[in-house]
Specification:
mainly beta; 2 domains; four-stranded antiparallel sheet
Length: about 200
C-alpha cells in the first residue's frame, strides 16, 4: 500500500511538472519494471517512462498476470488475442511491436531471458463425425522459450487437450513448473518433483 501511495505521489509530481504530458482519469497504476510503469484507462493498458511520457500507447490486448498489473520483463510484455473463443498469448517489445506471435494458450512473463508457456498441438485425425468433418485429437506441451521464441527446454507433455473445454474456458491447462535458480526448473508431476537443467 505504501508503494502504491509513493507511486501516486510520483505520478502527481510528474503530471504537475511543465515538461510531462498530462495523464488524467487513470483507473489503475502498476509498478515500475525496467523503467516502465503500466497504467490502465478505460480497460486499456499503456506504459509510461520515468518522465511520465507515454511510450506504449493504450491498447486492449496487453495482458496482466492473474492478480497483477502488466510488466515488462527482459524487454517484453504479454499480450493476448482471442480466436474462436480461445485466448492466445504472445509478447510485444517496448515499442509496442509484436515480436512473439500469440500462439500459446498459457504464458508467463519472462524471467532470466526465459518464459514458461503452454503450446497446443493438433495431433491426429481420428475419424469423421456425422457431418463428414474430421474429428481431430489435440494435445499440449509445457515449454521454456527464449526472448526470440526458440524452444529452450521441453518441460512436459504431450498431455490431452479437450478443445471444446478450451473454447468454454473450462479446465484450462496450468503451468506446473517454477524457476528455482536462473538455470534450474522444478516441475511437479503428480506428487513428485523433478529438476530440469536449462542448457
Amino acid at each position: 500500500m505504501r508503494a502504491l501511495r509513493l507511486t501516486l505521489i510520483f505520478l502527481c509530481c510528474l503530471i504537475g511538472s511543465g515538461s510531462a504530458q498530462h495523464l488524467e482519469n487513470i483507473d489503475e497504476i502498476g509498478n515500475f519494471s525496467e523503467g516502465l510503469l503500466a497504467i490502465n484507462k478505460n480497460n486499456s493498458w499503456g506504459f509510461i517512462d520515468v518522465n511520465g511520457t507515454l511510450v506504449v500507447d493504450f491498447r486492449t490486448d496487453i495482458a496482466a498476470p492473474h492478480g497483477h498489473s502488466p510488466i515488462y520483463s527482459n524487454g517484453l510484455c504479454l499480450i493476448k488475442e482471442i480466436r474462436e473463443n480461445i485466448w492466445y498469448y504472445g509478447y510485444i517489445n517496448t515499442k509496442g511491436d509484436l515480436v512473439i506471435p500469440a500462439e500459446y494458450i498459457v504464458a508467463t512473463a519472462f524471467e532470466n531471458d526465459y518464459a514458461r508457456v503452454i503450446k497446443p498441438y493438433k495431433t491426429e485425425v481420428i475419424g469423421t463425425n456425422m457431418l463428414g468433418k474430421d474429428i481431430v485429437s489435440y494435445s499440449y506441451h509445457e515449454l521454456l522459450i527464449t526472448t526470440t521464441n526458440k524452444m529452450a527446454l521441453h518441460i512436459s507433455g504431450p498431455h490431452n487437450l479437450w478443445y471444446y473445454k478450451l473454447k468454454l474456458q473450462q479446465d484450462l491447462p496450468m503451468i506446473h513448473s517454477t524457476f528455482i535458480s536462473p538455470h534450474l526448473i522444478a516441475v511437479k508431476e503428480a506428487d513428485r518433483w523433478k529438476i530440469l537443467k536449462i542448457e
